[in-house]
Amino acid sequence: MIDLSTQYMGLALKNPLVASASPLNESMDNLRRMEDSGIAAFVLPSLFEEQLTLESVLIDQDLSRGADEFAEAITYLPNLESYNTGPEGYLELIRRAKQAVAIPVIASLNGTTLGGWVRYAREMEKAGADAVELNLYSMETDPHKSSEAVEDRYCELVRQVKASLQIPVAVKLSPFFSSMTYMAKRLDDAGADALVLFNRFYQADFDIESLEPEPRLVLSDPCELPLRLHWVAILYGAIRPSLAITGGVHSAKDVVKCMMAGAQVAMMTSALIQNGVRYPRRILDDLTDWTTEHEYESIQQMRGSMSYRAAPNPGAFERSNYMKMLSSYALRAR
Ligand SMILES: Cc1cc2nc3c(=O)[nH]c(=O)nc-3n(C[C@H](O)[C@H](O)[C@H](O)COP(=O)(O)O)c2cc1C
């Protein structure tokens, strides 16, 4: 029987399948069902910096009734008071999740600015979280803000969250950096225990009749996986933090690819939403069948076997291959 166990940022997991942050993981029934069907850890949906800021705005507002500018500021925020039932509710969610399941529970904080709210990670730890995932989801629109300034702020944020905690800290990133490897190394130096590659941005479409932007959440597709495989394959062995893949993992073969690229865990949300919370059992059965058929004894044995350092053709990760691929594409006359 193959040994599916893996270590992820110091957490011992029974297999590499993790349910990434989504509202699915707010329901204790879902958590129990997913645990029964084999999932190895959960990431709770993110608590947003704006929710914490909103709480302090509301407190300030209480203290200074009549100051209209607070009321106006609040109308610009989406209804974050009820999402995750706010900061206090979030701590309760962690406590309930820890009671409901025996596997690790990772809390998630979404924020990108420095501030007192960062200390909230400490409250998450006290509530029982086994680790914190810092979800660096932000859309930089100010043309005067340099990429260096944004990256400095991210690293400082990681340093501050890390300084408040004893438990491990993962950082969930977007793929949009001029040098992903340099950024990964900087986050490593800032103390990140894991990098989660990559966040998906949910860009708004337009309605050309109403002339309104139309935010639309589209679930992922396996074709999103190669971008993640590519960067994990390059980063494997080059930095200290564990590597997680999120985005496009839909089958056991996708999990195998993640491990071969060098990831410690493969995360899923869209596939769980599409196939139900019992889907992990099917993935794990298929994973066991595939690995047995291919005579692997452990997940560890395949880890990194297709990474940049170990691949039979590392050039495939580089530009020469990009040119080769483009020039080999035969255009057919129509
Ligand atoms: C409905 C929904 C809600 C999500 N909420 C969060 C969230 O609160 N925090 C977060 O870091 N990611 C969130 N995500 C992103 C997922 O955790 C995941 O990274 C992304 O969906 C890509 O993985 P997938 O291809 O398995 O879906 C959400 C995704 C969906 C579909």
Tell me briefly what this model is.
The chain is α/β, with parallel strands linked by helices. Helix content is 41%, strand content 16%. The site of flavin mononucleotide has 21 residues, from strand 4 and helix 10.
Features:
single chain, 334 residues, alpha/beta, TIM Barrel, two-stranded antiparallel ribbon, 13 helices, binds flavin mononucleotide
Care to describe what's here?
This protein has 13 helices and 12 strands. The protein is α/β, with parallel strands linked by helices and 334 residues long. The chain has a single domain, classed as Aldolase class I (TIM Barrel), CATH 3.20.20. An 8-stranded parallel barrel has the order 3-4-5-6-7-8-11-12, surrounded by 8 helices. Strand 6 (131-135), helix 6 and strand 7 (169-173) form a beta-alpha-beta unit. Helix 8 packs parallel to helix 9 (252-261) and helix 9 (252-261) packs across helix 11. The longest helix has 18 residues, at 147-164. The protein starts with 5 loop residues before the first strand and ends in a 6-residue tail after the last helix. The model is unreliable at 58-81 (pLDDT under 50).
